[in-house]
Amino acid sequence: MDVPQDRIRNFCIVAHIDHGKSTLADQLLLQTGAISLREFREQVLDDMDLERERGITIKASAVTLYPEIDGVRYELNLIDTPGHVDFHYEVSRALAACEGAVLLVDATQGVQAQTVANAYAALEADLVIVPAINKIDLAQARPEEVAEEMDQTLGIKPEEILYTSGRTGQGVPELLRAIVDRVPAPQGDPSAPLRALVFDSQFDEYRGVVLYVRVKEGTLRVGQSIRLMQAERNYEVLELGRLRPRRTKCDVLRAGQVGYVVANIKAIQDVHIGDTITDAERPAARPLPGYRRPKPMVFCGLYPAQQTEFEDLRKALERLALNDSSFVFEPETSEALGFGFRCGFLGMLHMEIIQQRLERESGLQLVQTAPTVTYEVETTRGEVLHITSPAKLPDPSVIREIREPIVKVSFIVPSESIGAIMTLCADRRGRYVHTEYLGPARALLEYELPLSEVIYDLYDRLKSATRGYGTMDYEFVGYRASDLVKLDILVAGKRVDALSIIVHRSQAQRRGRALVKKLREEIDRHQFEVVIQAAIGSRVIARESIPALRKNVTAKCYGGDITRKRKLWAKQREGKKRLKQIGRVEIPQEAFLAVLRADEDR
Question: pTM of the entire structure?
């Protein structure tokens, strides 16, 4: 369907997690005829099984709609985005492909941490914001109060706000009209040299890499020879199309339009998110400004359960990194686990999702080590090293200073929970910044906290302390010097590098004790006694032992001289002694995750 450029609108929906983005997107698809009532189901754009099971959006999804407003046909390109803080990078990519953003707020929960973060991100990207309050059909909805909160926190005038319900479809026609009226049409000359922004990609087993693009200038045609400017490689366009929401072929994509490109790209490493596609014969002078590559904040080791699957794991990671450019990996070896990969993530949920996708999509059995953050280490020679694994920490004698990453955390909590949150942050070495009241019942607290104290269980503790009403968002501030030490775990006298962690000296004793206790529960009994120790350097600070399995070797001795039994017991002792010398302790996957659960009794 050919629509003039001045009737094209590119917009995304941004909001806090669980404020109804995907449900509203479903209604937009239904009411514009993109899907029929028979095809309608919850989370139409969330096509990953994990997204459906968890009820969250993980990947940004694009779809083209053709509504008719006042007898005029428009083309709306909608990008549905995730709400969780770990997937903020997906939101930033969606913003770069749009001119407007629908800022959605739940009528029952009001302005939350990610609402504020996403609103500022949209303003920084110079987008027109269309504010909307969702879930107005619920009995506990308080739209007037929420409109006041939006005015006070974000400076949005109440008369600009629209009221919708993603469940019933109420207010959706008015929202469509507001998008057409307020969001500007895309700029860009269709006759200029081609420049198209790659905002996402996906690997197809039979067709190679499928690129999702927003054409900024020029025109893309089937059969055209294109050039990936960053990779400096040429390809021929085999297929173009729009997402409606299924792929629908077309012959041309013009300036302002969003679609997909198939060009028989087999080399995954040629594709970079944020790259610019141009015409190979008439190239553009310079590429489009891409995306600032996100820095992974959490690292862990991923190892195949069977070492024969190492190459399969490498291929699976390459395909996943193509679809998720915020995920990075590099090969590493461990004495305990063999060959594997050190992987970087934006947060704990991101890490969990990647592991589950690898196991489901590639059928691999994985062993995951405890997550850690990136530390800056200044040596006595003046060098600054970035350490992503405790095993890579240099000898203490050459370390002048260890700096840990600090994040600014914004909590939005009920007023009666302020004391509990302050205690929670004080326990995690937090530094108070300020408090701001959003209304009589809710407050915004800001703290500076070490990232290592945030990633494990702070979100769960926040939900417990606020009875589920608290929300949080965080942003990286910088590195700060701290008294940190490496806590090693020794199993049967051998240091297990995959279980080492970096902790603050004041918490080393408690963490060491908790960890050896957990490992004692997780490691099975062997034919010999297994000693588990936590140590800082050569000093052991905690110890637990798993007693040996005892076989009743005298079961068949009925009466008789006691010396017969003593001989059998002595023989058994000798055998156990020999086993202890050559025995290898089997450490299950649960033991590596015990590093996480050791903090639960805090």
Answer: 0.69
